[in-house]
UniProtKB/TrEMBL annotation:
It comes from Fusarium xylarioides. It is a multi-pass membrane protein. This is ABC transmembrane type-1 domain-containing protein. Residues 1-237 form the ABC transmembrane type-1 domain. Its main location: membrane.
Amino acid sequence: MGIARFACTYIYASLFTFVGQRLTCNIRHEYLRAAFSQEIGFFDQIQGSISMQATSNGKFIQAGIGEKIGMLVQAMATFIAAFVIDFISQWKLTLIIIGMFPVLLIVVGGVAGLDAQIETDILKIHAEAGSYAETILAGVRTVHAFDLRERVVSRYDSFLETSFRLGMKKNRIYGILFGGEYFIVHAAMGLAFWQGIAMVNRGQVPDLGTVFTVLFSVIIGASTVMSIAPQMVMFSRAATELFRLIDRQSAIDRFDDSGERPDSLVCDVEPHDVSFRYPTRPDVTVLDKLSLHIPAGKGTSGSGKSTVIGLLERWYDPTAGTIRLDGKDIKGLNLHWLRTNIRLVQQEPVLFNGTVFENIVDGLVGTSWETASHDEQRHRVEDAAKVSFAYDFIVCLSHGYNTRIGERGGLKYISHNQQSKKVRSGVMVAHFAFSRFTP
């Protein structure tokens, strides 16, 4: 019997854990895919870190749909079997004990809901703290340069202190949960003993053994279900948080494959009667019925170039009016085609934490060399480095093109940052791109 139980438990735990990991992986994938499909305005308003949400809520989901599913099936089977046995043994006494379940469900469900809400708030605070820590670590040189360590650590501690205060509330909630649960169960046991003995004395129940059979069958069945109820509530809350973003329809969906893909591009950009307000400042009009033709290399500081760039790249859509490219409204163009035909070189481009080659080869996305062999891509990368006068600098690095750049391109000078990103495209937008070039 013991060997059979061991084998069955091992099989169900292994299979459900495997299924839970696969489902959690798929949910995280869809969550990040949904995050990348959102418009920039969504990220302007979001609080916390997307990666932290995916990690923390993913853990709760995995805990809820892993071996806990097997435990839930086992608990429900035990619960049903217990009631079948009880109704066969003594249905009157069983009906008396059942009276505790509505009260028990109200207490456990209500308190577990409060606990899940507090845990959700704690996760949000941890996400904000993680986002703040990522920002600080990305600018760690500035922190050391201005000796801001005490200040940033103090602010990070404030997040932890808020989380700690919320966590302390859970102590009282757990006290109510377990205290209420044990009170209801033991009160039901007392009522069952009292009525059971009375029924034995009246001859309605043959002996005390029947009373104990009914009583403990119900208690065991109920306790197995209640033991996993908090995990199920947390699973539900975590899934709700992730699926809120997964189900959100982006105003500008990067993965939408519809739209026109012109064969040629003249690069004539013309905002026409454009009005715009940033989502974070809906009461401030940034552009008001703007219409102009933008010659290359023109535009004084503060004239709205940054806003027009955001509209041209379709980070945002205008509140009114249109942005035309070669006379066509860019809303009617395929978004992937549009962005792969525009190269934006800013004053401080962001390089990813990876090798020099990995950062430059990203510029081949949207070109015929995107799916080329590694050797062909390497050849194109070297050509781009030579054209941008970065080749000599790169080959002098310790590992050449395989040198890891570090967070935000910490190993490279800004001029080389900019030059390495200039891959051939239909439209190049230079936003203060040459203001920090070294002569």
